[in-house]
Structure formats: structure tokens, C-alpha cells
Amino acid sequence: QQNQNNGWDWNNQNNNNWNQNNDWNNWGQQNQNNGWDWNNQNNNTWNGVVNNDWNNWNQNNNWNQNNDWNNWGQQNQNNNWGQQNNNWNNWGQQNQNNGWDWNNQNNNNWNQNNDWNNWGQQNQNNGWDWNNQNNNNWNQNNDWNNWGQQNNGWDWNNQNNNTWNGVVNNDWNNQNQNNNWGQQNNDWNNQNNNNNQNNNNNQQQNNNSNAGSKDSLKGAFASYFKIGTSVSPHELGSGADFLKKHYNSITPENELKPDSILDQSACQQRGNNVNTQISLSRAAQTLKFCEENGISLRGHTFVWYSQTPDWFFRENFSQNGAYVSKDIMNQRLESMIKNTFAALKQQYPKLDVYSYDVCNELFLNDGGGMRPASNSNWVRVYGDDSFVINAFKYARQYAPAGCKLYLNDYNEYIPAKTNDIYNMAMKLKQLGYIDGIGMQSHLATNYPDANTYETALKKFLSTGLEVQITELDITCSNTQEQANLYEKIFKLAMQNADKIPAVTIWGTQDSVSWRREQNPLLFSNGYQPKPAYDKVMALVK
């Protein structure tokens, strides 16, 4: 910007760096006082160092040695800027002997095929008017962040915080990571699709960085929902490759249940009757595996009648103490949830905790409502369902952003129990505390049939909440019947994929299943695919 009417005066830039903040090292300085002399560049290239080393801009090497740019800027030959196959539309070829005439570009597109938005076409005869480019994007399709849009053209003296290509911190040395800036085939239409930004969000929602191939479960169903499995730490060694191939969600089978995370000794040493201390040590191996491999975590569970130590409900966290009051228990419940989410965030900052079962298996099978006090210490202390409301309230308060909160139960397809789950979910929804219902889906080939299961699914979907299939397995005596029911369940999930974000199989192979005698999973021992696996995969082929 030099107060002239004909745009950027290339012969009089007065030694101004093109981009001081980006350390372009005196862009175009050639030991003359008039800046970059476009009429006398000789054989100097735009950037002669392979690896895009902008600190040595203006070496005598080609712009990208491997890409053969045909001596860009050599004005006395008839070569196009790029090879003919690259269809740069004779960039700068204007039948003159001096290369690109910046004062007479006459509406030549820089690259029509690549949709560069008619670069420099502003209906003027004086070339690109740097003072009047207004709102023309340099390259909308490649998202150049509205290059130079500052209402008054590109202000070269005030670019400071404007990024040239949306690259965080304008780090040109790492702009394209491991790919050449000019691809081998010079395919500029795909320039922005080759990992040119480092995405550290290894979650992410569908974990595209861990999408998987079409011969894997997670790859085959990537456009529908996450595919998960339950895992025990002993499987993370020999089964690591299998897990990474097929799953983008993992549920620790036992290691996040209350009896695994509650730390009695730490609770007692604190001398505080209400501040529940937790430890993630038993889950550490699984959590680290998920974090390092970009696999999302499904947390399971906070409130459960089972696998919750009796001392957690007693005075001084002691096995011999009296049962505490509701007020004390509320504080213990809140601190358990708060401290668990805090530990996950602090110890595994890159881990995607995308959903959590806040309450698990609250109801009887016969429609009789919640479990009695004789079967649940939660009901023993509270006498009503207020602990459920409070648990979801605390989880909503402390859960990380994006973590969906679930009410999870089994035998959920029994009509009377379906109604109890539905009613509790609607109560929680009205309070704004819940995101979804978890259907454990522990099935058998003889019950329930697909129609019964679908009836329950539709009932839960009618709440307007998400539904996840959280612990799917199907016991059988006939592998073909098992395959048929797996196929039907997956079909139902696919038909409702807009409200079913994940399907989790409860186990990796039959030998580790809690129902191992009846071979309920997709893989037999040694991770060998069964007919059920083949049927499921055939749905997306």
C-alpha cells in the first residue's frame, strides 16, 4: 500500500517485508533498493528449498524440485508456469516477453479449474488492485480464510494477526506436515485435504483419525454410529491390534465401577466424612490405551446397587459404622462424581469421554419400580428416587463438555420394565439432566424376538432422547440363529442411526464373555469371525 491508484507497485516496494511477523526474511530483497524486481528476477525461484524452508526464500533451486515447475518466472521462454497437465491456464502468459505483467493481467484467471475465484479479476485494466480487492476470496474452496479481506484490501502494514492460510501461528515451516507443498501430481484441488493441519482433537466426535478400513467394524459402520466393546486390562496386550482395528469406543468392563474407583483408605485418612476419594489406578491401563489410540471412552458407572462397597454408605467410611443420612450421602455422591471427572481430565487430558452411565439397573423386571432397600443401599439410605435425580444433577454439573449422560438398564425389553425406565427418563429429561437411555441388550436367540426388542426401542426413542445399545450379546445353541438376530438388531440400529450414536458389544471374543458357555459374541476364541460377524458386515457391503 503505497498511496498509488494502480494497486501494488511491484517495482517500488521499498524493502518492505512481505510479512514481517511470519519471518519471510526480507521477501524479494535482491540487494537493490526497489524491492523485488519482477522484470529482472533471472533464475531465482519463489522458494527453492525442498521442505518449504521459507527462511531461504529466493534460492536458485526450483520452487519444488520434484514438481518441475518449468522455471517459474523465466520471462524469455514460452513455458507455462506449471506443466500443461496441471492446467494452470497459462498463468502469466500474455504474449509479452517479460513474464507476468502485473499492470496488464486483463482478466486472466489464475486457475479456472481450481476455482481460484477469478484471481485478480476486478474489471479494471490495471491488474490486481491491492487497494480494492474488497471481498473476493483468494480461494473459497480451499478455505484461505478470506485472504486479504479487510474492507480496504490487504493492508500489508497491518496484517499482524491475519493468517495467510488459516495456519495457526502462521507456522509456514510446518504448513503441510509430511506432505510436499506441491503434491507430486501437483493436484491443487486436493491441496487442503492432505493432512496440512495437525488435528490434536483425537476425538473426536466420530474419531475420524481412527475411522478404520471397510473390513473393520468401526470402518464399515462409520457413517452410522460408533462401534464399541467392553474390555478388561489383560486384553490390551495380545488383543491390542484387534481392538484398534475394530473399535472406536471402549467401555472398561469393571474398572470404573464404584468398587474399583472408591478409595476407602484415602477417604478415612482425610478425616472428612463427606469428601469421597477416588483412584483410577485399576482403570489406568485401559484409559491410557484409549487416549493413545484415539478411542473414545464410555464410562460405566456411578450409581449401581451392585459392586458398590457397603462402607461407602456408613459413618467414617467404616464397615462397622451406622448408615449415614441423606444429607451426608448427597455430599459423598457429589464428591465421587466431581472427583472422578476431575481425575479423568487431569490424568488423561486428551481422552474423549463421550458418554457415561450415571445410573445402572435401577428397576425390577416386573414393573414393581425401583429395587427395594434390601437389594440396594441407595434405596436403604434415601428411601426414594431422589438419589437418581441428584446423581444426574451432579453429573451434569461436572461432566466434561460433550459427555452424554445415560440411564442404563437390562431386560429393558420386558414391557413393564420398559415403562419404568421410560418414566424415569422423562422425569430426568424435564429437569434437563439426561441425554440418553442405554439398552444393555443381553439377548438370546429364543427371547426376545426382534419385534419385541423394536417395540422397546421405539418407546425409548419417543422420549426424544438418544439411545445407545450398550452391552449387546446374544446367547445361542445355533450360530446361524444367532447370526440372524444380530443382523436384525443391527438393522434396527441402522434405521435409527440419527438417534443411536453407538452400539457396544459386551466383550471381544467368546472366551472372555461373562456368558462364555453360550458363545454370545461376534468372534470366537482367537478373535475368529463367526457367522454373526459376517451377517453384520454384509449389511454395509
TrEMBL record:
Biased composition (Low complexity): 76-208
Location of the active site: E471 (nucleophile)
Family matches, as InterPro entries: GH, GH10, GH10_AS, GH10_dom
Domain GH10 positions: 211-539
Catalytic activity: Endohydrolysis of (1->4)-beta-D-xylosidic linkages in xylans
GO molecular function: endo-1,4-beta-xylanase activity
Region (Disordered): 1-21, 76-215
EC numbers: 3.2.1.8
Key words of the record: Carbohydrate metabolism, Glycosidase, Hydrolase, Polysaccharide degradation, Xylan degradation
GO BP term, example: xylan catabolic process
Pfam families on file: Glyco_hydro_10
Top-level taxon of origin: Bacteria
Family: Belongs to the glycosyl hydrolase 10 (cellulase F) family.
Protein name: Beta-xylanase
Species annotation: Ruminococcus flavefaciens
